[in-house]
Amino acid sequence: MKLLTGNDLATGAVTWWTGSGWSLHVEDALDVGEAGEAILHAEEGARRVNAPYIIDALPTPEGPRPAHIKDRVRALGPTVRPDLTLKPADPAAGDWVI
Amino acid sequence: MYKYDNYDQAMVDARVAEFRDQVKRRLAGEMTEDQFKPLRLMNGLYLQLHAYMLRVAIPYGTLDSRQMRMLAHIARKYDRDYGHFTTRQNIQYNWIKLEECGDLLEELASVEMHAIQTSGNCIRNISSDQYAGAAADEVTDPRPWAELLRQWSTFHPEFSYLPRKFKIAVIASPEDRAAMRLHDIGLELVKKDGELGARVFVGGGMGRTPMIAPEINSFVKADDLLSYIEACLRVYNRYGRRDNIYKARIKILVHEIGADAYRAQVEEEFAHVKALGIDPPLAELERIAVFFDLPEPIQSEVRHSREGGDPSPDHSIDAIVQEIDSRLRGGDDWGAFETWVKQNVKPHKAPGYAIVNISLKPIGGIPGDASSSQMEVMADLAEKYGFDELRVTHAQNIVLPHVAKRDLYTVWQALSEAGLANANLDLISDIIACPGLDYCSLANARSIPVAQKISKRFGNLDRQRDLGELKLKISGCINACGHHHAGHIGILGVDRKGVENYQLTFGGSGAQDVSIGKIIGPGFDEDGVVDAVEKATEVYTRLREGEERFIDTYRRVGLEPFKEAIYG
Amino acid sequence: MVEPAQGGAWPRYRDDEVAEQPSVTLDAFLDQSNAGAVRLEPDDDARRLIPHLGRLSLIEIAFPKYRDGRGYSSARILREAGYIGELRAQGDVLVDQIAFMRRCGFDSFAPEGSLNPEAVERALAVYPHAYQGAADGAQAIWKLRHG
Asked: CA nearest B304: which of B354, B349, B355, B346?
């Protein structure tokens, strides 16, 4: 599957395209199939996202898992500071990245 | 240290207003990201893996307690309560919001700080010796020269769109504590016939093509310096490669045309530029130098000892330990304190003083990170016991350059309470590491977890001290921000088919015995590289002779015994 | 010669007449000696013009990409050699680079895109001083300090 991701222009936060908007959580990301480029240009033009790009991901029961480690780090947060990730209460969250 | 006058303040204030306006135009859609990117980069603002990252300049690594407290305040108010001290003696914040940048920069400007030219293809923060002004072996304090260069390079109209970034270091001691010859331009201040001038080295650097800068001029006089550097830059701006970003640094130009041809071009340009009158009179250097005068009590001590009052002051660390109040010796913590003094305290040019190194490398910690409360502790100590001065080192540590020997114990106690008394300066756990894939969008592998595992593996301080000086440096990609080429042991993270892999290099040095490390063989996974490092240290302890450091043994015996132990 | 789009005016900081003749390439200029206007590409060596500056009324310096900063050095070299004719930055010329270009000696601008005149004036007024001497005659801060 293909996901569309980028950063919020004003805050810089990592965001994922949900089909109708942008979420902080990769679990909410939607497979954009072949439509990625078109959505990317429209959303970037409207400044609802900054520096967007399309990535490969695998569907899993817990939601999409980005194919590359870099995007998994982006999706969770720094593996060396679990307290600053999106799942600070889950000490094993970093395993998902690696 | 240097204080802004109205001119300096007006320039920084103008920059805040300009950047505020640029951010506003970007948020309003009047500029594309492509147009905005070089502008934000020239103000140190990156878009990293998780958010915007802001790099704040700490010119030549010198700051006072008020500025350090402001860095803590910025961390607390605009970031997530911590900052990361970098190998260019700067600090960077990882979670900055674009919309808050204007306010943040305004607060910084209120304490004479900024983010000007901390990124982009321009002349970056000038780096220097962290012991400047305090080192017994310096011919002069290099920072007035660095400040002169800082002002000259700030908003330089001709050199703001160079082929690539440009880094300058200034030192004034035979011992190189700033990796001077691994810079685009390295200056070593020397005395010739009683006059101060600069040896000029051009074309060093790390990155994917590491090079040691050749000497281009053995003596440039103080009042020719800016013309000469301007000539160096103009030749680069005109002829540096712009067809390939990986070949755009000045080291490639100097290497491709040769140091002699480059020197000839610079000399020709210099003859022309010198006539333009761009060099300030020596009075300007003197005006700046006054700000860096040693505090009066230290100065009078230096004078006294020079005039023979104290015929041969013993600057050794053993002497420092001897002089510390004998009442402390019976205490439970004497051993830990003594170890810290022996490892982290360095001799000062004034007999009653010492240089304190604060290691930001706790076992299992993140190299170079400090919380806002730790920054405040360091600021308080500098204010109370250090004549209000702090330094940032290129090895990502902090220095209190002027501490009276009688205050060392008090300072150590306060550092201990804040988790800042790690007695591991220059030991294997005093690791330089770039942010790596945990933060950086360029990285191919994580650096910090490797640093953490190695420091834990060698957590025992006695074992580390037995291994002695061992500079271990980790980069998460070929750009070499973690200085792996200059590590006695270097580690380079690479991406092997989507999996993190680590290559080992041995034999690098960023000091006066400068050299570039060599890759020893196939790479390892994270645990494998930690094991390989441990095996290398075992080979060293088996083969070392006398007082040899790891790198000395490696240079004497060569790679083979290490290779055999690691791969055999 | 390129004209401003839709009758717009280019920023120009000279009182004399705009040169009407088309500019030629450096090689063409050096071959054929009667042109009064020449256009330099980023990799042209501006020094080759130095013997001929007296009879040039316009030198256009091309910026195919604004990130290519070679034109800044070309401009200063020409001004340092005594050129007093029109020095025009042409191509990818954006408002945020104009102040530096002025300092390097450019006195007219032919941007490919449009430039908002108010934004240009604002950009030129941002910095009250300059830290270093360049080609615009501004007194460096060290000069102001030492009188």
From this structure: B349
Q: Which chains touch B (3 or more CB pairs under 8 A)?
A: A, C
Query: Given the structure tokens 């990818």, which residue do they identify?
Result: C92
Half-sphere exposure of B313 (CA within 13 A, CB side): 23
Q: Please compute the mean of the pLDDT values over residues B443-471 and round it to a whole number.
A: 98
Contacts of C140 in chain B (CB under 8 A): 278, 280
pLDDT exceeds 90 at position B308: no
Q: How many CB atoms lie within 10 A of CB B170?
A: 28
Instruction: Inform me whether the C-beta atom of residue B245 falls under 8 Å from chain C C-beta atoms.
Output: no
Q: What are the tokens at B237?
A: 């701006």
> Are C and A neighbours with ≥3 CB pairs closer than 8 A?
no
Q: Which residues of C touch B11 (CB under 8 A)?
A: 127-129, 131, 141
In one-letter notation, the amino acid at residue B231 is A
Cα C54 to chain centroid distance, Å, stands at 17
What does DSSP say about strands A63-66 and B45-47: parallel, antiparallel, or unpaired? unpaired
Structural domains in chain B, sorted by start: 6-109 (3.90.480.20), 134-284 (3.30.413.10), 307-417 (no CATH), 437-567 (3.30.413.10)
3-state helix, strand, coil in chain A (%, to 5): 35, 30, 40
Residues contacting residue A12 through CB under 8 Å, at least 6 positions apart? A50, B47, B50, B51, B52, B95, B96, B97, B98
Report chain A residues whose CB lies below 8 A from the CB of B27: 9-10, 47
How many of the other CB atoms lie within 10 Å of CB of B336? Answer: 15
Q: Residue C7 has what pLDDT? A: 45
Query: Is B337 within 8 Å of B320 (Cβ atoms)?
Result: no
Chain A residue set in contact with B, beta carbons under 8 Å: 7, 9-14, 44, 47, 50-51, 67-70, 73-74, 77-81, 84
pLDDT in tens, B375-402: 999 999 999 999 999 999 999 999 999 9
Cβ-proximal residues to B530 (8 Å cutoff; 6+ apart), any chain: B450, B453, B454, B457
The answer to whether residues B236 and B162 touch, using CB atoms and an 8 Å cutoff, is: yes
Spell out the SS3 assignment of C57-105. CEEEEEECCCCCCHHHHHHHHHHHCCCCCEEEEEECCCHHHHHHHHHCC
CB B530 within 8 A of CB B449: no
User: How far is the alpha carbon of B50 from chain A, nearest alpha carbon, in Å?
Assistant: 6
Residue of B nearest to C76 (CA): B158
User: Which chain B residue has its CA at the smallest distance from C139's CA?
Assistant: B278
The structure tokens 């988790």 sit at B419
pTM: 0.96
Nearest CB to B498; choose among A13, A47, A68: A68
Min Cα–Cα distance to chain B from C64, Å: 13
* Count of CA atoms in the C-beta half-sphere (13 A) of B391: 24
Chain B residues with beta carbon closer than 8 angstroms to that of A47: 27, 29
DSSP three-state, residue B294: coil
Q: B229-258, pLDDT tens digit by residue?
A: 999 999 999 999 999 999 999 999 999 999
CATH 2.60.120, applies to C5-146: no
How would you class A41 by CB atoms within 10 Å of its CB: exposed for 0-12, middle for 13-18, buried for 19 or more?
exposed
Rounded-to-integer distance, Cα B53 and Cα B70, Å: 17
B206, amino acid identity: M
Q: How many CA atoms are closer than 13 Å to the CA of C26, on its beta-carbon side?
A: 17
- Domain residues of chain A, as ranges? 2-97
Each domain of chain C, given as residue ranges in start order, spans 5-146
Consecutive H or E run containing B505: strand B499-506
